[in-house]
Write a structure and sequence with these properties.
Largest interface: A-B, 60 and 60 residues
Number of strands of chain A: 16
Shape of chain A: globular
Number of helices of chain A: 16
Strand content of chain A: 5-15%
InterPro entries (chains A, B): 6-hairpin_glycosidase_sf (IPR008928), 6hp_glycosidase-like_sf (IPR012341), AGE/CE (IPR010819), AGE_dom (IPR034116)
Subunit structure (chains A, B): Homodimer. Forms a heterodimer with renin and inhibits its activity.
Organism (chains A, B): Bos mutus grunniens
Structural class of chain A: mainly alpha
Oligomer: homodimer
Largest sheet of chain A: 3 strands, antiparallel
Keywords (chains A, B): Isomerase
Catalytic activity (chains A, B): an N-acyl-D-glucosamine = an N-acyl-D-mannosamine
């Protein structure tokens, strides 16, 4: 056999594997999206949790424009709601949007999709709005009214209820089914997911209200992070070290990329912010390049104790693909290599469990036992992030070592997390890979990491196949849908 | 063999088993106390964590009465301490107490006792002071200066540093090694353990300062719980249900019993408070007596969602022995039977893992999957509390079914949690009983549940043996030390 033939056969084999993964990923994305469409939409119009103590899903509460009263829940009179319910927004009740019959999403879903709690977590509301819009915008097969209408209803729910005391921008962490705040976190993350949702909603609807909201909230977030955090409500205590969690610049960098997409003017304005975020994230590489630490001092030094030694391999990998995108956009090959080395390979090699496989949730940089009870569990999202990171790394460099790691992580992930019976993925495995929690959604798991991973991987695999394959090999498949333009609907 | 002989032989056998457990428990108590004496005492005088990023244990910082300055830490000048350090209390520096060379306790201890973080958690400082004093007061063999001096130094550390902004009584949750507040919880628990420590310190030293502190803090706690919680700093949010965690009346009942011990006047004054606590705890028996729920509404109804269905078998068992003591003191046999039924047998039977043994950490009253990642883990403290509860139940009723459960729990606990190599107990096992975290102490595990369980079990086993045994059988053993009087030292 000639060398040329062998090379051709190897290429053919690689394409086969990539194509098989592309098909597997695309089918899985369909199943996952179907799970959320089937189970997570609140079809009632703002019914409060039934005061009888049940989930209240069986009783509906409808706004009567005639009497300006909520009516329909037989137990409502007995409820001790500390504030009166708001009437629905005019556009929901009276305009073309009146066809939208659900508001926000249930995310506390059991294995089979059953709602086990009707609380609405703001992170997850924002993430699901973002995800539906992104799918609608980038995939022909998801350009369906049910996704768009659900995203708009979720967006309206956020607009009306997320901010605890408007005009102050601080958002709740969790709301009751009908939008009353239950808990407020003293961090920026509810607001970040709110911003992502609003910007993406604007991109699919063209409605300037959404973009104005996104830009105003972004200004507030940047001000909290870079100027004055006092509005977050965290007390300044003399013993608390001035520290930075990597999550903050990481999340901000993601927002810079979100808001700057296909908007050269905005991308230019926010370039300085993007550079700042990248520099701050890079400061978390410590110990002479041998460890990514989740928390460092304000001036980029290692902190003492458990806080300083804390590592979160999934976060490092997620920050890795945010930084990779940043390096690619700037054409910075040196940074790209550094990011692959420090934010992909390093956390993967130190975070992968040599005994049972899978990525540890938390680690201690000195190899001591972490104090978090769940440190050795395997969570779905670090694995989703790792799949994105390594496939992106391979797409950009062609380094087969990165592709091998993608396959290794993807095999583990599909084998362990995926639920072939009821759809979606389990979120929480024991160290040995057995399912520890059977829930499909909860306070932190919603319609986000799994479909984002699958959608991005499908797109990257498609692009790889387009580049690698002879024209004929892909001709029988539909090409990936191009991004829609803002206001294209 | 005559019936009389058989009964005598059965009694003899039961005594043998009880005696074996008493010896096992007493030996284990010695080992556990030795672990904390060996590893947890901060021998330096208030050295701040070394700004170099290490634990700072190797550098000492000494108060110089001559220059009125802290000196000795070569890196101190580089530290960015937001507030100046306080000088030591006069009695520590100048009085008879100057011999006390340590201040507060390290509780972040690895498997072998090594300090892996020097933060000082206020719950655990208070608990260790309480534990040392209680051992000193009730056991002849622990009436040793090293326990008393360490307890006093811990008490002085709390007096000086626990309150975040005196004269306000709110205490920190965690302090730096030198006493600067790092975090404040918006609950009453730091203050409760502070009160326990102060009252017990007064009982062994007779120093009225400690008792005044205990009484003032108790007044503040009761006021927060029964009158106005605003000082705790929790925002009142319209969507948050007015709920009661069982931990609150449970903790208060424990304090009522602590403060009222051998003090008839105080016991009389606080009788109403004790009754209130007991009634509030009893409200957590829900669903027609079929479940103890951790959270109920202010008026004792089940709450909706996960919050309402949440169960914590260890808490129910701990509340069980607090209530059992309460019922015994009041001579209320009907309540005693109710408590054994609902707070001992019910949580044990529903909370014991039929597959692997051990008590689940959390459960959902509908049998759904809890959302807490650690729900199926086996923690040390529910098992310690179960040992106390069932041995107390048996001591009071003579019901052999309760003794059998004590043996079952104690066997599991000694087999799984005890570390024969380095002493003390592991705190956190996976569902299958394997050690998940090798630490012996951390933010929530200190010198408390294990020695309290062992000390109480030793005392109860001694009393049982005294009651059951022919006089000769115990004559070769030393009787348990009687409680010391306040100010007896």
């Amino acid at each position: 056999m000639s060398r040329g033939l062998r090379v051709w056969q190897d290429m053919e084999k690689e394409q086969e594997t990539l194509r098989a993964w592309k098909d597997r990923v695309a089918r899985e994305l369909d199943r996952v999206v179907a799970f959320w469409l089937d189970h997570s939409h609140d079809q009632e119009q703002g019914c409060a949790p039934c005061p009888s103590g049940g989930l209240g899903l069986g009783s509906s509460l409808l706004w009567s424009p005639r009497t300006s009263l909520w009516a329909g829940c037989h137990l409502w009179g007995a409820a001790s709601a500390p504030i009166p319910l708001h009437p629905p927004t005019p556009d929901l009740a009276n305009s073309a949007n009146a066809s939208v019959s659900h508001r926000g999403f249930f995310t506390c879903l059991g294995r089979d999709g059953q709602v086990y709690d009707d609380l609405k977590y703001v992170w997850l509301q924002g993430r699901q709005v973002w995800m539906y819009c992104r799918l609608y915008r980038q995939f022909e097969r998801f350009r369906r009214p049910e996704l768009l209408n659900a995203a708009k209803a979720g967006g309206e729910f956020l607009l009306r209820y997320a901010q605890v005391a408007p005009p102050a921008k601080k958002c709740a962490f969790v709301l009751t089914r009908d939008g009353r705040p239950v808990k407020v976190q003293r961090t920026i993350f509810s607001e970040c997911f709110y911003t992502m949702a609003m910007n993406e909603l604007w991109r699919v609807t063209g409605d300037a209200r959404y973009q104005n909201e996104a830009m105003e909230m972004m200004d507030q977030i940047v001000s909290w992070v870079r100027e004055d955090p006092s509005g977050l409500g965290r007390p300044q205590l003399p013993g608390a070290p001035a520290s930075e969690s990597m999550a903050v610049p990481m999340m901000l960098l993601n927002l810079v990329e979100q808001l700057g997409e296909a908007d050269e003017e905005l991308a230019g304005i926010s370039a300085e912010l993007g550079d700042w975020c990248a520099q701050r994230i890079l400061q978390h590489v410590q110990r002479g390049g041998q460890a990514v630490l989740e928390n460092v001092s304000e001036d980029g030094e290692e902190l003492s104790g458990c806080l300083g030694r804390h590592q979160n391999p999934g976060h490092a990998l997620e920050a890795g693909w945010f930084l990779l995108r940043y390096a690619i956009q700037r054409g910075d090959a040196k940074l790209r290599a550094h990011v692959i080395d420090k934010f992909l390979l390093l956390p993967f090699h130190s975070g992968w469990d040599p005994e049972h496989g899978g990525l540890f949730y938390f680690q201690d940089a000195d190899g001591l036992c972490p104090t978090q009870l769940e440190w050795a569990m395997k969570l779905w999202w670090p694995h989703s992030e790792a799949m994105i990171a390594f496939l992106m790394g391979y797409s950009e460099t062609g380094d087969p070592a990165l592709l091998r790691i993608f396959y290794q992580v993807a095999e583990y992930t599909f084998h362990r997390f995926r639920d072939p019976e009821y759809g979606e993925w389990f979120g929480y495995l024991n160290r040995d890979g057995k399912v520890a929690l059977t829930i499909k959604g909860g306070p932190f798991k919603g319609c986000f990491h799994v479909p984002r991973c699958l959608a991005m991987c499908e797109e990257m695999l498609n692009n790889l196949l387009s580049r690698l394959a002879p024209a004929s090999a892909l001709s029988t498949r539909s090409p990936p849908a191009g991004p829609a333009r803002p206001g294209a609907e």
